[in-house]
Every structure is written in C-alpha cells, then in structure tokens.
Specification:
By secondary structure, this protein is α/β, with parallel strands linked by helices. It folds into three domains: about 120 residues, Beta-Lactamase; about 220 residues, 3-Layer(aba) Sandwich (Rossmann fold), CATH 3.40.50; about 160 residues, Heat Shock Protein 90, CATH 3.30.565.10. It is built from 16 helices and 19 strands. It is elongated and about 100 Å long.
Length: about 525
Amino acid sequence: METENNRVGQWHDDAQYRQLVRTADEAALLTAVDGNIALVNDHATALLGYSADAIMKIPIIDLYHPDDREMVIDRVMRSFAGEYMYPAFSARLMCKDGEVISVQIIGLIIQWQRQPAFLIFIKDMTLEEKLEARLQQVEKLQSLGTLAGGIAHDFNNLLSVIQGCVSLIRFDKDLSPTHQEKLKTIEAQVQSGAKLVKGLLGYTRKGKCEVKAFDLQKLVQDTAVNFGRTRKDITIHVGCSADLPIVKADPSEIEQVLLNLMVNSGDAMPDGGELNLRISRTTGIEIMSRSCDLEYGSYLQLSVIDTGIGMDKTTQEQVFEPFFTTKEMGKGTGLGLASAYGIVKRHGGDIVLSSRPGIGTIFDVYLPASELPAADQETPEEEILKGTGTILLVDDESKIVHLVGTMLKLMGYDVITAESGEEAIEEYAKTPDTIDLVILDMIMPHLGGRETYQRLKAINPQITVLLSSGYSLEGQAEEILEHGCNGFLQKPYNMTQLSFKIRELLETPLKVVNNQHGQAA
C-alpha cells in the first residue's frame, strides 16, 4: 500500500522537475535512489562553491557534515520505506572551500525516470544562527551587567569613605611632606579603584556619555604613539581613509576603548608583532550582516588588527564577559574588553570580533559619525573653592555623611545632615528658605532619591539639588535631571571636585584654597 509520503509529486513528469529545479528561488537538488545528484540549479552551485558538472560527480551524502551523515541516511531510508517523516529538517553542509554552513532542508520523495528519487530544497541558515547566537550573547551580557552594576555601586561607596578621609587629612596645613606623599599614594590607589569601577559601569552601560564631536583620527594617532612607547617590540601602523567625518562620542571613553583593545592585542603578541589601526567610513546597511544592533546611518569603523596568537571559538564567545581572562592570576582583571564593549554600546555603536588561532584577531569598532566640527578640549580645575550658604546633605551611609559634611564645613558652608529620604524631607520642611543646596544620594532604602526629590520639589519648586551616586548618570538619575534637577556628581569624588560642583550650582564668590595646606589664596 502506498503512503501519502510515497505519492508526493507523482503527478509531475521529468521535464516538469527539470523546470522546477532550474527556476526555484533557492538552492535545489534532485538525487536519484543511488544517492547521485541528477539535477542542480545555480543557487545550489553558488551556495556550495562547486560547478554544476563537479557537484553532479559527488554523492549527495558526501556534501553533508560527517557528524550529520548517519542521521540523513536514516531519515532517507525510513522515508523510502514508507514511514512518514516531516519533510523539513536541519543539517550542516560542507562547501568546496571547507566552510561548514547550517541549512534547513525540505526533502520530498518523487518519481524520477520511473524510479524513486529525492527532491531537496536548501535554505542557508548561517546568518540567522549567527544573529540568534549574538542576541543570546547580548542577553547574557545584560544579565551579568546587572550584577556588575550592583558591585560597582557598593565599591564606589567604599572608595568614597577612603577618598573623604584622604581629602580631610591632606587639608591639614601642619602635615609633614612625608605624610603628604603617603596620602598621595593612597589617593592614587583610590583613583585606580575608581577606574576599575568605571570599567564595570562602562560594561553595564550605566552612564550618560559626555558626547562631543571630535577627530577620531587624531585620537587614534596620539593613543598609538603613547602605547608604542610601552611596547617597542610591536610595529604600529595607522591608516585612515580620506575626508573622514567627525565622530560623536566621549573622547576620553573612546580613548579607553582603543587602549584596552591595543593592550589586549599586545598581550596576544608577547614576542612582538604588528598592530594595524584602520579608520574608514561605512553605513549601517553595509554592516547589517555583521551586527544585529546598529541602526541605519553613517558610521566610522575603527579596526584593531593584530598578528597575535588569536582566539578559539570558546574564548571568542566569552571575551566580552566581565572578569573573563586568559591571563595568569594577578596579571589581569578581565574588565578591559568588557568595559570596551559596554562603552561602545552605550555610544550607539558596536564591536564585532573575528579571530583565528595562530593567525591573529580583528576588532571592528563602529561609532556614529557626525558632520559637526570638532570641539575644543577643556582643562581640568585643580584648586579647592570656598563659599557660603547652607547645604542639606542626604546620604544613608553615615560615614559618608560625616566625611562630606566635614569637607563642606571646611569650605565655609553651614551643613544640615540627613541619613534617609524621610529625614531629609522633615529637615527641609523646617526651613526651606534658608537651605541653598541639597546634596542628595540617589540610592537609599525605603524612600529613594527620585521619590525624595519629587517631595522636596513639591515643598519648593525652585529647590537646587545636586544628585550623588555610586552609579554613573543613568536611569533614574538621568530622569530626575530631565525634570529639573540641577547637577550630578559621581562617587568617589575628592574635595576639589565637590567644591567646583557646588560653585557651579550656587555661583558663590570665588575663593581659591591651596589643596596642599588648606590656606586661602
């Protein structure tokens, strides 16, 4: 008795099958019962890389990946035996150049030259699988980012206490030069810790970039020169296309991305090698096949190409995860590439990695281009400013309240403190007209920064508030700023940074204080 599967396609004659294979919109093959290929269309030869004559001399089973052949043979035999098999299945095919491609196959039993035969339609699924894998990787990295962000926040609070103590001790005019030097060492370590945390926050994309238009080519050239001084065994080449547009990004963060990538390449070339840095212009539509995240538009492509040891597939899948490293204990934090990934994504760009063991690695960084002129660089302030007025300091960490409160008093301000949102509202409601500024912690239990700000603003719509947090400017903090909050200061901050931020918001008369000895200038 004939099954439904056996009867499929019997109404066609040989000429109709020839026409069907030839005009199919996707790769199509027709194989005889002995496994030899009888018909093939141009889509199939293009997909597999063979000529029509060459592919028809290869048994169909030899085109399948060795690990899939047993499954395919079993499926075909059971189909010819009359057992119903779902016509679509997934497999891997071997191209002429050795590349393995993932495909979806629809196979139908037909009659060809009065014998059972197999008509196969092939859909290339390689790109879809790559995009799906990348989406899964993005979801995984986002989950890890949530964990990393929490660690960064708590660690920044810890560093704030250390930085606060150092700032207060250094303010002592009677401190000996020896102790001043030791405090500088402690402060330098605090800054190193802050950079580590910044890497975590960069990875988690928690932070609003200080975006400006700048010349990426100049930044790359300057960074290459600085890195070259540390690795003279590496030959660095910088190549740029003509008439490159300006890039829209935070130059300090993009410099950090480039430096992290160059350090990674340097580690992959312990005995020296070549490092090529190339900048070119591209568009979103040209890189859609490489990235599932970029919107249509104009981009600058920065390629970091090394001749190092390369990476295997497993390493490539984990390389952007925080704390993943192939280095020995104590020789790396595993945050360099994770931070670079987060920074680039936060800028609306993407990083695409390609690598082969023993050959080298290529990181392609895509950043939005701009037609704006490059911005001037600002010089950082280094002095402490004194002022007058009353400040309400709100933070649930009692040590931070004590230390920052002391710093504010040394700057000349009257200070009221609160260690919760509820207490802050109570204190502010007593004398709202006498409080010139509120320094408000963003993350607090029970009544958080956003709710506290809303209730304070209900008391006085003209209130001046400076947000402070161990997180970067993102999420709730950014939302509050958009609703009229006056400024943001990320922990840990030193006395100089705090004094200038207050000065910016209150515009108090300028008094410069010597940072070393606490004397008015």
